[in-house]
Every structure is written in C-alpha cells, then in structure tokens.
Amino acid sequence: MATVKPGPSTSFGPVKQVDAGPLNVGYAEAGQADGPVAMLLHGWPYDIYSFADATPLLAAAGYRVIVPFARGYGTTRFLSDDTPRNGQQAALAADVTALMDALHIDQAILAGFDWGARSANAVAALWPERCTALVSVSGYLIGSQAANQAPLPPRAEHAWWYQYYFATERGRAGYDKYRREFSKFIWQLASPMWAFGDATFARTAAAFDNPDHVTIVIHNYRWRIGLAAGEPQYDDLERRLAKLPAIAVPTITLEGDANGAPHPDPGSYAGKFTGTYEHRTIEGGIGHNLPQEAPQAFARAIADVDGF
Asked: Kind and range of the H or E element at 301?
C-alpha cells in the first residue's frame, strides 16, 4: 500500500447526495465502482475529512470507498421537519444500512472510530450479513442506557465531563455558542500529541454548521445516560444491543498509544469478537482520531481484515 503524508491539502471530489431512510445523506465516494466496498464512519466532533488521507490509499488498492456525513453533520439533512432529531445508537446504525440500500450495496467492510465505530459495531452485531468485515477503533463500543446508569470511579467519570455538561441546558447553550472552540478543545484533549493546524480543523469545523448538529449531539449524550428518550421504532434494536451481543464477522480493532479520550482497555473486549480477530496498537503519539493521524495504518487494517 502506498504511503501518504497527512495534511489539509488532501480533498475529496464533489460531495454526492442520496435519499436514504429519513435522511438526504451527503457522502464522498472514491475508487472503483465495481470494487469491494469500504464504508468509513466518523465520530464527534469530526467529519468525513478524518478519512481524507486513508481514502485514496484504499481507492488505489481497488476499493470503492464511501464516506458519509452522519446525521447532524455536513450536508446530510432530514427529509422531514417532523422527524425527531434523534442521536441514539440504533438510529445511527440504521442510517448505515439505509445508505447501503440506497446505493444498492449488499455488503461492505465497515470501518470507523468514535460514534462511527459504535455504528459499525451495531451493524455487524445486528445485521452481520451486511458487514463482510469490521475495523473498529477503540474496540467494542455497543452500549445501553441501563449499563450507563452504573457509576464509574471518579477519575473515569471526570473523563466524561462533557457528557454531564451536555445534560444541562447551560451545556446545550454553551456548545451551540462555542461549538468551534469546544470541538477544538476536544481535539486537543483526545489527541494530545497531534499537532493539527488551523486549516485542518477549519476544514472539518464547517460540518458543525449543519442546522441539526447541536440537537443531534446533545440528544446522543443525553440518551446514553437515560435523560432523553429514543424513538419507538428503534426499541427492539436497542433491546438487542443492550444484551451486548458478540460480533462474529472478521475484525481488527485499533487503538492509538496516545488516545486521550475515554476508551476501554483492549483486554476487556477481546472476547466480544468471536470470529477471526486481531488487535493492533498504533504507536507514534497517535490519539483518538486515528484514521486522520495514522491513515496508512487505518487503511492497512481494512485491506488486511478483508483477507481474513
């Protein structure tokens, strides 16, 4: 696989749009139309540019690469004003399969980090026939409202400070008013060794101007701790996810050696992956935004898991 120097100069072609489920999804696409599909899923507070450098590597290796904006980011919009602006995990996972259906993709390698890794985990667990293989940064991230009721030791709770801030109306207002400053601060905390520049951050921060962004982010974190309800159509999926199902598709999990965001120890989740499985720690001061900080390692993991 070719090498790449990460930076703000790498870009995608024109962003495409397609109606998928309750959304009109904005997505980037690269590579061979008839190649195996790799769908790359971003988290918060990030966007499709987390994969700007990994995408051409995968395209050059023969993959069809699909990189969507999640609901509440970039050019993705709700089709109806009446649809709840819901950030719960099952809704985000269902968005992935809806996009696959809209693009007539039967199966894909799913790869992501943060929210995107959770969505990829959920699709692999709920609909394994749609997921040929999985690359998950920070491992097994499926959760439940019930599990999130259990208190953590103080140091662990401190790492989730923003979740509790978002539980307040002051937190909603603060994130809305200072969303760029807040997001840059999260980048600095989550990737303390990553010397990203202003242009790199600004390129992604534009995605936070989405009119539903704040509502989706706040709902996501409030839903996790039981302070916001989900939608009834996702209740059955959430019951299944709350059982923390094993994932049987071939999987590589990745972790940076300098991830400053809350993340589980790899030993705690290895048993959740019951198919062919490998964990890799990526060294060199790599933080939470691993696909952007170490694009070659991320792309290599996708190519390797495809061969499991």
From this structure: helix 295-306
Non-local (6+) Cβ contacts of 307 within 8 A are none
pTM: 0.97
Can you name the residues that pair with 19 across neighbouring β-strands?
Answer: 24
- Give the structural domain span for 269: 17-306
Buried b (16+ CB within 10 A) or exposed e, 210-243: bebbbbbbbbbbbbbeeebebeeebeebbeebee
**For the chain, what is the domain count?**
1
Residue type, 170: R
In angstroms, the CA 26 to CA 93 distance is 16
Amino acid residing at 224: R
For residues 59 and 2, the answer to whether their CB atoms sit within 8 Å is no
The label of the residue with tokens 């002051």 reads 170
Residue 10 resides in a domain: no
C-alpha to C-alpha distance for 297 and 295, rounded to whole angstroms: 6
Task: Kindly state the greatest CA–CA separation across the chain.
Answer: 51
Q: What is the pLDDT of residues 115-143, one digit of tens each?
A: 999 999 999 999 999 999 999 999 999 99
Cβ count near 30 (within 10 Å): 18
What is the bridge-based pairing of β-strands 131-137 and 251-256?
Answer: parallel
Per DSSP, the chain holds a count of helices (H) and strands (E) of 13, 9
Q: What is the CATH number of the domain that holds 46?
A: 3.40.50.1820
Helical segments of 43-195, H only: 54-60, 89-102, 115-126, 154-159, 161-166, 169-177, 179-190
